[in-house]
Design goal:
Blueprint (H helix, E strand, L loop, with lengths): L4 H18 L3 E3 H10 L26 H4 L2 H17 L3 E5 L5 H10 L5 E5 L3 H10 L7 E3 L7 E8 L8 E5 L8 E9 L4 E8 L14 E5 L1 H13 E13 L1 H4 L10 E4 L2 E3 L10 E3 L2 E2 H10 L3 E7 H7 L2 H5 L4 H8 L4 H5 L2 E8 L18
Parallel strand pairs: 2-3, 2-5, 3-4, 5-10, 10-14
Antiparallel strand pairs: 1-7, 6-7, 6-9, 7-8, 10-16, 11-12, 11-13, 15-16
Amino acid sequence: MKKEPASLTTALQTHIAKAIADAGGWMGFDRFMQLALYTPGLGYYANQSPKFGAMPASGSDFVTAPELSPTFGRVLARQVRQALDATATDEVWEFGAGSGALAAQLLGALGDRVRRYTIVDLSGSLRARQQATLSAWGERVQWADRLPDQIQGVVVGNEVLDAMPVQLLVRHGRAQDGAWHERGVALDESQGGFMWQDRPTPLRPPVEIAGPHDYLTEIHPQAEAFMRTLARHLVRGAAFLIDYGFGEDEYYHPQRHMGTLVCHRAHQVDSDPLADVGLKDITAHVNFTAMALAAQDAGLQVLGYTTQAHFLINCGLLSELEQLTQAQRAQAAKLMMEHEMGELFKVLAVGAGQPWQPMGFAQGDRTHRL
């Protein structure tokens, strides 16, 4: 039976509070984020609440590109088809498949070119939704709880890196001689909830932060570990990772002094991940330089990096738009508009084996800016 929001939050808050107490009264934010999002049955991505949808009236919290317009999947399929041909493979792997909308779009566009489509998703509730959405493809679609020793095929991940837990680093300006601390979570005994608590740390951002001002930011060890894991298992093929984020210089610019951590609920954004746990998404932008370096250091080739707008246009978005109604075109155009998804969202491609030129990076490749 679906839990009411208040009882869900209370149960998850109790669970996290016990974990903090067991850890000695303090836990790093990455552990808190992991519990808030993925605690079985209670965490945001593990409970039954709606997540994905175009409008708040649906009960959803945010919209992703496949829900915004099916054109996204049809255009991405052109790149996936080229990658399958270039690597002589016939399998697609999708990490964090959400509602299953992207899988349905890719399978519909690629047809028999895909022998098997495997989804890796931590959420049991989302898996059930995916199975209902993708039932028409029968046994061609499979779900995996862990990776095989070898992956041969094309990997897709849309908005998966941003949901991986991050560590928070804070510098308290001149007041404490510019010392760096890790920001974690402790129990707020007076209010009965959670509160921030900073501890000295040897951890540092990957670049020097100029200036004496206070500075809060994120580092991404779990996402970097994911890239290294992907490199160990991908023996032939390519991976296309699509998410909002920046290269390192832009990510850690002195003016971005408040970091990128935000929450999404009912299509509204807030900055308090310690409140209403389990009822809202917690996310941070992606440091694409760190992702590319982790993949490269583990043996993969960086095949390209660009904005979502450039990538989709290179893959034929404009010709797709010509076939849509005016209303459909207005929705699909948001995929490339600078003030919508076009500029903030980036695409990183990595591959195993000899490098080749994916069509999505033919114009506007920004690999040199990573």
